[in-house]
Design goal:
With 522 residues, this protein is an alpha/beta fold. The protein is built from 22 helices and 13 strands. 52% of the residues lie in helices and 13% in strands. It is globular and about 70 Å long.
């Protein structure tokens, strides 16, 4: 009995000691003892308070905590509200819950497209508004809300501010506004043009960056061990792969004959790039080109995902019809034979060699696992196969389409996974950005991605509280291997992008300060 009392006393003393060691943020509007004080977060927040800034920080190191400190500072000014944007409903809800728990304000609202216009009109008047970009863009256009209402706008996953994504339209609305802009991301794009586009659209003055190797960050990081696992395609898939490549080669031959310059190994992206040229100046190449694009999609899905996703893609493509569809699905001997072999393989329970490997990987590490796949059909297939193999799993997908998950269901699924109601969560892109799921022991890429941003986002779901494991499945001699090399090149480029952009911004600032007289006025 005495030993138990002694143990409890030591535990109590240790807890008190740890409590005294832990320092908390002391700021107006921030709840007392709610936010741990970390020097790198304070320094990054101070930089973001002073100028339009993008904070680049590895996943799991508290970008939202930095945003909270900036929000508290701007609320203290008392001259406008705060707009906190995030690309998915699950992530917006996560930020909303975090702010409710850590701010002393009551008027914090959550706005998504599932709210009526009447309800949204009232919610926009709150001091802090968390919203999805699509609904913010639409309501700004409808003039339900005005840019003048806000003195701080936060763009989470700011790397999305390119092209015609909703962030771009919102940035335009705030072009002449005095509101402070804060962008947050785990990595800038690897392409200089895209990084420059983001800085220009958001009128960014500085990039505040930390890496896992930064001295002030290192004490808070956990190691993530990465393993690349190669698998051989089953013979059945190799036979289908060969037939699809033969069908593709025939289209390449016709395109070359029609004067289109083609390399031996033409990529899907290269085919997509010449679409407009063909439609405008070489119409006779339209049929072989669009047929080749379909075959490429089908081949990539077969190689990376398996039989069922391949057959589902073919079924949808056939229903949609379009240029060359009848010829491909009814006449082409190679393609029709490929579909026949795929149906035969499915009837015998053959899917992809990644499936048995998945079970082996999941069982090799105790605890929760998060599986990422880019293709919704393969989510269902993986779920069904793992369930058959006795592995408890859940699904997290976006809301689009008949089978999509609405916001409420997405949030429920994430919570069930957190609570341990199933061991494995299979997710599409909706699970890549910002999702805070504590204690994910390993992340598995069912397919590889040729994007530094998506790779880093996926990887960041593990190694948050303890050493994590990342496993990337690669089918040999397939699109997986191609994406592996593209991804490595982009990861290298992305690592130096923050420093490059900082240099550009400094040079711009220097040039601006050197202007005098008429130049300065202009």
């Amino acid at each position: 009995m005495d030993s138990i009392l002694l143990y409890e006393s030591i535990k109590s003393i240790n807890s008190e000691f740890c409590y005294r060691l832990t320092q908390y943020i002391e700021k107006k509007y921030v709840r007392v003892n709610s936010l741990e004080k970390r020097d790198y977060q304070v320094n990054l927040a101070n930089q973001a308070i002073c100028e339009n800034c993008i904070v680049v920080l590895p996943t799991g190191l508290g970008k939202t905590a930095i945003a909270l400190q900036v929000i508290a500072e701007y609320l203290s000014k008392g001259i406008g509200g705060v707009l906190f944007l995030a690309p998915t409903r699950v992530l917006v809800n996560q930020h909303f819950e975090f702010l409710k728990s850590n701010l002393t304000l009551d008027d914090i609202s959550l706005i998504t497209g599932e709210d009526s216009i009447q309800k949204r009109t009232k919610l926009w008047n709150n001091s802090v508004v968390c919203a999805t970009p699509e609904i913010a863009r639409n309501d700004l256009a409808r003039e339900i809300v005005s840019p003048e209402q806000f003195n701080l706008v936060i763009f989470d996953e700011v790397h999305r501010t390119v092209g015609d994504y909703a962030y771009s339209a919102i940035a335009e609305r705030f072009e002449n506004s005095s509101a402070r802009i804060l962008g947050m991301t785990a990595t800038l794009p690897s392409e200089k043009e895209k990084a420059t586009e983001i800085l220009t659209k958001l009128r960014i003055s500085s990039v505040a960056e930390r890496t896992e190797d930064s001295p002030d960050v290192k004490p808070y990081t956990q190691e993530t061990n990465t393993e690349w696992v190669n698998v051989e395609l089953p013979l059945e898939l190799k036979s289908i792969q060969t037939l699809l490549k033969l069908a593709l080669d025939e289209r390449y031959a016709v395109l070359r004959k029609n004067g289109i310059k083609m390399t031996e190994q033409q990529s899907l992206s290269a085919l997509l790039r010449i679409r407009q040229f063909v439609l405008n100046q070489n119409r006779r190449s339209a049929k072989p080109l669009f047929t080749a694009i379909r075959i490429h999609y089908a081949l990539n899905i077969l190689e990376a995902h398996g039989i069922t996703p391949f057959l589902k893609f073919c079924k949808r493509a056939q229903v949609k019809k379009g240029v060359g569809v009848r010829e491909l699905f009814e006449v082409d001997p190679n393609f029709t034979r490929a579909i026949h072999l795929a149906k035969e393989a499915k009837s015998r329970g053959i899917e992809h060699s990644k499936i048995p490997k998945l079970k082996e990987i999941i069982e090799s590490v105790p605890g929760k696992a998060l599986i990422f796949t880019s293709y919704r059909d393969s989510v269902d297939m993986i779920f069904n196969k793992l369930t058959e193999l006795g592995v408890s799993a859940g699904i997290l997908i976006g809301k689009a389409g008949e089978t999509g998950l609405k916001q409420k269901k997405q949030i429920e699924t994430v919570q069930k996974f957190r609570d341990g109601l199933f061991r494995v969560l299979i997710a599409t892109r909706v699970g890549e950005e910002g999702l805070d799921i504590a204690e994910v022991n390993q992340v598995i890429f069912y397919d590889n991605v040729p994007s530094s941003i998506r790779f880093i986002q996926r990887r960041g779901r593990t190694g948050r509280k303890d050493t994590g494991k990342l496993v990337v499945l690669i089918a040999k001699n397939t699109i997986d291997e191609t994406y592996y090399w593209i991804g490595r090149r982009k990861m290298t480029a992305a690592k130096s992008m923050g420093a490059k952009m900082t240099k550009v911004l400094e040079q711009n600032q220097e040039a601006k300060s050197q202007k005098t007289g008429l130049d300065a006025f202009v």
